[in-house]
Design goal:
239 residues; mainly alpha; 10 helices
């Protein structure tokens, strides 16, 4: 991109940009090569100018590298996925951190594997296969609370007759896992878009926690309605 020198009055040379951002010129050049910064305005073959708005962008990139140990590829994807506003991106990251921190706090408790097998009478090979499929994620200390709830649900399915004798296996859980992965991805995107920077992170966490139980009820009710509608379509098709 070329421009007349008169059009660059509000722009900065690379050395000025680096000084303002608190990084070496070599760092700015590296970010340019990695596609983290837009191309400069060039007035000649050897003279280029940069927007002052890039100062905060460079500071944010450096912060994500040093404090969160993010690879530049991941940072570039984050910058590309948003509107390029560093403050907006900081708000998104802070909100994600707060939600993850609160969620993980509840997941750190562990129930020993032996206790889970005793309590729910699910065969060890079933639990091991569920872990291989990443439906469960046990560690050396046992299963997380969400893992235990999944095992309990599977135990109830098996007690009701949903077992290998009539063709139901652990692979059937993948159907629900795949469906929920898409739903959760969309849910997080909507949540971040609407609330990041608009509401205090702690308030967002409270909102999510307050909605957890109604959401489960909503999903269960929608499942019933959709099941009825699908069975009615099958009956109509046979008539």
């Amino acid at each position: 991109m070329s421009a007349n020198p008169a059009d660059t009055a509000q722009l900065m040379k690379i050395s000025e940009l680096a000084d303002a951002a608190g990084v070496p010129v070599a760092t700015v050049r590296h970010y340019l090569r990695e596609g983290l910064l837009p191309e400069p305005v060039k007035t000649s073959r050897n003279m280029a100018y940069y927007s002052p708005e890039l100062v905060e962008r460079i500071r944010l990139i450096k912060q994500l590298q040093e404090e969160r140990f993010m690879p530049l590829k991941v940072i570039r994807e984050l910058l590309d996925s948003g509107d390029g506003d560093p403050e907006r991106l900081r708000a998104l990251i802070e909100l994600e951190d707060r939600i993850l921190e609160r969620t993980l706090a509840g997941e750190r408790k562990r129930v020993p594997a032996r206790e889970v097998r005793r309590r729910y009478e699910v065969p060890k090979e079933v639990l091991d296969r569920l872990a291989e499929l990443e439906v469960l994620s046990p560690d050396g200390r046992g299963y997380s609370p969400s893992d235990v709830r999944i095992v309990e649900a599977i135990s109830r399915f098996r007690a009701g007759g949903y077992d290998e004798r009539i063709g139901f296996t652990v692979y059937d859980t993948l159907r629900y896992k795949r469906a929920l992965e898409g739903l959760v991805k969309e849910e997080v995107e909507v949540l971040m878009e609407r609330l990041a920077g608009e509401m205090e992170p702690d308030r967002v966490v409270e909102l999510i926690e307050a909605g957890a139980e109604p959401l489960q009820d909503l999903i269960a009710a929608l499942h019933t309605k959709l099941l009825v509608a699908e069975l009615e379509r099958h009956r109509a098709a046979r008539s």
